[in-house]
Amino acid sequence: MTPSEVRAALLGEHFELRRLVEEGRAILRSGQKPPRPDLRAAIDRLADSLLEHSRHEEAALREILGTVQGRKHPDAVMDEAHVAEHARLAGVVRAAVEDPASLAVDERVGNVLDALEDHMDHEEEVLLGVDLLGEDNGPNTLRPGP
Questions:
Q1: Which of 7, 29, 34, 124: disulfide with 133, CB 3.0–4.6 Å?
Q2: Is 93 a member of any domain?
Q3: What is the pTM of this model?
Q4: Domain limits at 104?
């Protein structure tokens, strides 16, 4: 794949992750009380998608970013950030199932969803920018609508 094709594929995966984040937020806004198997299922889908995206992203970007002059090799930073995101998601899954206090679960899940979106924003700016990976297809239209 060319760098611009990798960029397009990874931005498409970010779009799907953002859709799954919104699915979790919709469940939180619904006012349902624990146990919430639909929240657990939504977070499981998000965690599975994030793990798959992380594997794809690291493999695709490791080779490309290693060839871009002036860039440090990103492996260690990307690995640490992704491991932290996965650990937070795993913690949220457990909290969503085990914590009887819906406000605590809502706060934990909401915080992790916010952190994941911040992580993707950072990646899109630093690692997936048109200046680094190729042609832009216009403004960032890869965000799901409300």
A1: 7
A2: yes
A3: 0.78
A4: 3-130
